Amino acid sequence: MADNLSDIQWCVLDLLLRAKRTGASRVNRLELMRSDALPDALKVKLVFTALTMAGGPFVRLHGQHDFEITDAGERMFNERIGAPSKAADAVIALPDQSRQVLQ
Predict the structure, then answer these.
(1) Around 78, how many Cα atoms within 13 Å sit in the side-chain half-sphere?
(2) 3-state DSSP call for residue 64?
(3) 7, 46, 54, 62: which has the fewest Cβ within 10 Å?
(4) Do the strands 59-62 and 27-28 form a parallel or antiparallel pair, or are they unpaired?
(5) 10-residue block means of pLDDT along the chain (103 residues)?
(6) Residue 85 has what DSSP assignment?
(7) Looking only at Cα atoms, what is the longest distance across the chain?
């Protein structure tokens, strides 16, 4: 199944796993869309992809707006890629305002 993931699906998992590891267990799609760190077209593509992945084994949708990586998604990402990138830090809204500490 992991071999069938597109690049943008890997990016969604990367974003969600990095969020989880930095203390934000979920990523809000509205906050992602308001982020100035990414071009609008990429934000739309990430949100749309996360929405389509939410029905599968790797991403869970909470309510209408919050995405979270599942245990299966985390395990698969770690086996295939390893650690998430730090590129996601620019769009993750950390709950304790510690984004500055990560930079």
Answers:
(1) 10
(2) coil
(3) 7
(4) unpaired
(5) 80 91 88 85 93 95 94 92 73 48 38
(6) P
(7) 36
**17 vs 85: CA distance, rounded Å:** 9
Whole-number Å distance between alpha carbons of 94 and 22:
7
- Secondary structure of 32-46 in HEC code, one letter for each residue: HHHCCCCCHHHHHHH
CA distances from 10 to 68, 83, 96, 101 (A): 14, 12, 26, 26
pTM (2 decimals)? 0.81
Measured between alpha carbons, how far is 55 from 31 in angstroms, rounded to an integer? 21
| Residue of 40, 76, 43 whose CA lies nearest to 58 | 76
Q: How far apart are CA 64 and CA 29, in angstroms?
A: 9
